[in-house]
Amino acid sequence: MWYFSLGAISVMGFLIAIGITRNRVFGIRTWTAIWTAASLTFLAFIVYAFLDRGTLATELALGGAVGYVGSVSVHTLHHYVELNKNPHAKAAGPTAELRKLRRRVPILAALLVFHAWLWVRMALAGDVAFFVLLTVPVAVFSIRLVAYGRRYRAITASPTPT
To answer: What is the pTM of this model?
Structure first.
Protein backbone atom coordinates (compact mmCIF):
# COMPACT_ATOMS: atom_id res chain seq x y z
CA MET A 1 0.00 0.00 0.00
CA TRP A 2 2.86 2.39 0.81
CA TYR A 3 4.55 1.84 -2.54
CA PHE A 4 1.25 2.33 -4.35
CA SER A 5 0.74 5.65 -2.54
CA LEU A 6 4.35 6.67 -3.19
CA GLY A 7 3.93 6.00 -6.92
CA ALA A 8 0.66 7.95 -7.11
CA ILE A 9 1.94 10.93 -5.14
CA SER A 10 5.25 11.02 -7.05
CA VAL A 11 3.70 11.05 -10.51
CA MET A 12 0.91 13.44 -9.58
CA GLY A 13 3.37 15.73 -7.81
CA PHE A 14 5.70 15.78 -10.81
CA LEU A 15 2.88 16.60 -13.22
CA ILE A 16 1.61 19.35 -10.95
CA ALA A 17 5.17 20.71 -10.65
CA ILE A 18 5.60 21.03 -14.42
CA GLY A 19 2.21 22.70 -14.68
CA ILE A 20 -0.16 20.10 -16.06
CA THR A 21 -2.93 22.63 -16.68
CA ARG A 22 -1.44 26.11 -16.52
CA ASN A 23 2.26 26.18 -17.35
CA ARG A 24 3.80 29.50 -16.37
CA VAL A 25 7.44 28.44 -16.02
CA PHE A 26 8.44 26.72 -19.27
CA GLY A 27 7.92 27.63 -22.91
CA ILE A 28 5.46 25.42 -24.77
CA ARG A 29 8.23 23.48 -26.57
CA THR A 30 10.15 22.81 -23.35
CA TRP A 31 6.96 21.87 -21.53
CA THR A 32 5.96 19.48 -24.33
CA ALA A 33 9.44 17.91 -24.33
CA ILE A 34 9.32 17.42 -20.54
CA TRP A 35 5.79 15.99 -20.73
CA THR A 36 6.78 13.59 -23.53
CA ALA A 37 9.96 12.48 -21.76
CA ALA A 38 8.05 11.91 -18.52
CA SER A 39 5.38 9.89 -20.34
CA LEU A 40 7.95 7.73 -22.14
CA THR A 41 9.90 7.19 -18.92
CA PHE A 42 6.74 6.15 -17.13
CA LEU A 43 5.88 3.83 -20.03
CA ALA A 44 9.31 2.20 -19.75
CA PHE A 45 8.81 1.74 -16.00
CA ILE A 46 5.42 0.10 -16.55
CA VAL A 47 6.95 -2.30 -19.09
CA TYR A 48 9.77 -3.05 -16.63
CA ALA A 49 7.24 -3.75 -13.85
CA PHE A 50 5.29 -6.04 -16.17
CA LEU A 51 8.38 -7.99 -17.21
CA ASP A 52 9.85 -8.10 -13.69
CA ARG A 53 6.57 -9.17 -12.07
CA GLY A 54 7.94 -8.01 -8.75
CA THR A 55 5.57 -6.73 -6.11
CA LEU A 56 7.47 -3.50 -5.46
CA ALA A 57 7.74 -2.45 -9.10
CA THR A 58 4.14 -3.46 -9.80
CA GLU A 59 2.79 -1.48 -6.83
CA LEU A 60 4.82 1.59 -7.81
CA ALA A 61 3.64 1.30 -11.43
CA LEU A 62 -0.01 0.92 -10.43
CA GLY A 63 0.25 3.88 -8.05
CA GLY A 64 1.97 5.91 -10.74
CA ALA A 65 -0.79 4.99 -13.18
CA VAL A 66 -3.38 6.26 -10.73
CA GLY A 67 -1.44 9.51 -10.31
CA TYR A 68 -1.05 9.89 -14.07
CA VAL A 69 -4.67 9.18 -14.90
CA GLY A 70 -5.89 11.41 -12.09
CA SER A 71 -3.72 14.29 -13.26
CA VAL A 72 -4.69 13.88 -16.90
CA SER A 73 -8.35 13.73 -15.87
CA VAL A 74 -8.02 17.09 -14.09
CA HIS A 75 -6.20 18.46 -17.15
CA THR A 76 -8.95 17.25 -19.49
CA LEU A 77 -11.65 18.63 -17.21
CA HIS A 78 -9.86 21.98 -17.27
CA HIS A 79 -10.01 22.05 -21.08
CA TYR A 80 -13.68 21.06 -21.02
CA VAL A 81 -14.50 23.92 -18.67
CA GLU A 82 -12.45 26.37 -20.75
CA LEU A 83 -14.21 25.32 -23.98
CA ASN A 84 -17.63 25.70 -22.39
CA LYS A 85 -16.77 29.27 -21.43
CA ASN A 86 -16.24 30.07 -25.12
CA PRO A 87 -18.78 28.15 -27.24
CA HIS A 88 -17.28 29.57 -30.45
CA ALA A 89 -13.88 27.92 -29.83
CA LYS A 90 -14.69 25.08 -32.22
CA ALA A 91 -12.89 24.37 -35.51
CA ALA A 92 -12.93 27.21 -38.01
CA GLY A 93 -14.35 25.14 -40.85
CA PRO A 94 -14.50 21.81 -42.63
CA THR A 95 -10.82 21.87 -43.59
CA ALA A 96 -9.76 22.25 -39.97
CA GLU A 97 -12.22 19.56 -38.92
CA LEU A 98 -10.90 17.15 -41.55
CA ARG A 99 -7.36 17.81 -40.36
CA LYS A 100 -8.40 17.04 -36.77
CA LEU A 101 -10.13 13.84 -37.87
CA ARG A 102 -7.07 12.69 -39.84
CA ARG A 103 -4.92 13.25 -36.76
CA ARG A 104 -7.25 11.63 -34.26
CA VAL A 105 -8.38 8.50 -36.09
CA PRO A 106 -4.99 6.69 -36.16
CA ILE A 107 -4.39 7.48 -32.49
CA LEU A 108 -7.87 6.33 -31.54
CA ALA A 109 -7.52 3.16 -33.63
CA ALA A 110 -4.21 2.34 -31.93
CA LEU A 111 -5.77 2.89 -28.51
CA LEU A 112 -8.69 0.66 -29.48
CA VAL A 113 -6.37 -2.15 -30.60
CA PHE A 114 -4.33 -1.91 -27.39
CA HIS A 115 -7.37 -1.86 -25.10
CA ALA A 116 -9.08 -4.64 -27.05
CA TRP A 117 -5.94 -6.76 -26.68
CA LEU A 118 -5.96 -6.13 -22.91
CA TRP A 119 -9.70 -6.83 -22.85
CA VAL A 120 -9.25 -10.24 -24.52
CA ARG A 121 -6.25 -11.03 -22.32
CA MET A 122 -8.24 -10.28 -19.16
CA ALA A 123 -11.15 -12.40 -20.42
CA LEU A 124 -8.84 -15.35 -21.10
CA ALA A 125 -7.14 -14.92 -17.72
CA GLY A 126 -10.53 -14.95 -15.99
CA ASP A 127 -10.02 -11.51 -14.46
CA VAL A 128 -13.64 -10.38 -14.52
CA ALA A 129 -13.07 -7.01 -12.80
CA PHE A 130 -10.53 -5.76 -15.33
CA PHE A 131 -12.51 -7.30 -18.20
CA VAL A 132 -15.59 -5.31 -17.20
CA LEU A 133 -13.51 -2.18 -16.59
CA LEU A 134 -11.86 -2.44 -20.03
CA THR A 135 -15.26 -2.78 -21.66
CA VAL A 136 -15.78 0.96 -21.17
CA PRO A 137 -12.78 2.22 -23.21
CA VAL A 138 -13.26 -0.46 -25.88
CA ALA A 139 -16.88 0.61 -26.32
CA VAL A 140 -16.10 4.34 -26.20
CA PHE A 141 -13.24 4.07 -28.71
CA SER A 142 -15.38 1.97 -31.05
CA ILE A 143 -18.32 4.37 -30.90
CA ARG A 144 -16.03 7.35 -31.36
CA LEU A 145 -14.39 5.80 -34.44
CA VAL A 146 -17.80 5.19 -36.00
CA ALA A 147 -18.82 8.79 -35.24
CA TYR A 148 -15.58 10.10 -36.77
CA GLY A 149 -16.15 7.94 -39.85
CA ARG A 150 -19.67 9.27 -40.29
CA ARG A 151 -18.54 12.86 -39.84
CA TYR A 152 -15.65 12.38 -42.28
CA ARG A 153 -18.01 10.90 -44.86
CA ALA A 154 -20.52 13.73 -44.36
CA ILE A 155 -17.85 16.39 -44.85
CA THR A 156 -16.24 14.79 -47.87
CA ALA A 157 -19.51 13.76 -49.57
CA SER A 158 -21.17 17.16 -49.53
CA PRO A 159 -20.43 19.39 -52.56
CA THR A 160 -19.97 22.41 -50.30
CA PRO A 161 -18.56 21.25 -46.94
CA THR A 162 -20.36 22.45 -43.84
So the answer is: 0.48
